[in-house]
Design a protein that fits this description.
CATH topology: Carbonic Anhydrase II
Number of strands: 15
Mean pLDDT: 90
Distance between the termini: 79 Å
Structural class: alpha+beta
Shape: globular
Number of helices: 3
Strand content: 25-35%
Radius of gyration: 22 Å
């Protein structure tokens, strides 16, 4: 026997079906050739979560960066133990940042967990804020223990004395996508402030796929670069920072050496 449905039920059903078909058509499952940007365009950061299914985490509840405020003292946190030595200079402009790829063997130990330093890269302006204030530049040292356990050290810059690493390499930074290498060695410990007090919270990668697998340690003490060096970075990186994300109930902790 043929079944009849009221018109309004057919209309609602049609909308649901067409919506499902539309969503599956516009959100690819393969992110390989997806182009994303920091701007407010169609591929911009407000739309990262909708560009492909692999970027779904960009709309998650534990995203980074954040505004660091109201940090709670937590003496039970561990000291950051850096087992850094040197790395060869391999500098890449990947279209989103300037990245130094690091040689294997440089380690960070936190509370018994050892992480391998993979690379460090820059954001201008800073991604993290402290009490609502941005810095002109921020560098992230990205470490990995497992695919689900990353530790990223964030170091903020302020205007001051010229930066020795920039003195040597800033003029060599690729202005377009590409890589610069030479045989000189970079002393990694010299890239960090002497005092390693930090703010800590749990968050994510700040670029797609925005995986929420990161233990963030933003150092309280800043390092310096000259006004002209900071201006060169701004011109090169063109505001490659992600906007501040909601804490959504997460706590920010403070540790002093």
């Amino acid at each position: 026997m043929e079944k009849w449905y009221p018109f309004w039920r057919i209309s609602v059903l049609s909308l649901v079906v067409s919506s499902c078909v539309y969503d599956s058509a516009v959100i690819p499952t393969d992110c390989t050739n997806i182009h994303w940007t920091y701007t407010m365009t169609a591929g911009g950061q407000d739309h990262w979560a909708d560009l492909c299914t692999g970027y779904n985490a960009c709309g998650g509840m534990s995203q980074s960066p954040v505004n660091i405020t109201g940090a709670v003292a937590q003496p039970n946190l561990s000291k950051l133990t850096f087992g850094y030595s040197t790395t060869a200079a391999e500098i890449e402009n990947n279209g989103h940042t300037i990245e130094f790829v690091c040689d294997p063997g440089n380690k960070l130990t936190i509370g018994g967990t050892q992480y391998e330093l993979l690379q460090f890269h820059y954001h201008a302006q800073s991604e993290h804020q402290v009490d609502g204030k941005k810095s002109p530049l921020e560098v992230h040292f990205v470490h990995k223990a497992t695919d689900s356990d990353f530790a990223v050290i964030g170091v903020l810059f302020e205007e001051g004395a010229s930066n020795s690493l920039f003195n040597q390499y800033l003029s060599r930074f690729p202005a377009e996508e590409g890589t610069y290498t030479d045989h000189s060695e970079i002393e990694l410990t010299e890239l960090l402030p002497l005092n390693k007090s930090y703010y800590h919270y749990s968050g994510s990668l700040t670029t797609p796929p925005c995986s929420e697998v990161v233990h963030w340690y933003v150092l309280k003490n800043k390092i310096t670069a000259s006004a002209s060096q900071l201006a060169q970075f701004q011109a090169l990186l063109k505001n490659n920072y992600r906007n501040i994300q909601n804490l959504n109930g997460r706590k920010i902790y403070s540790f002093d050496e």
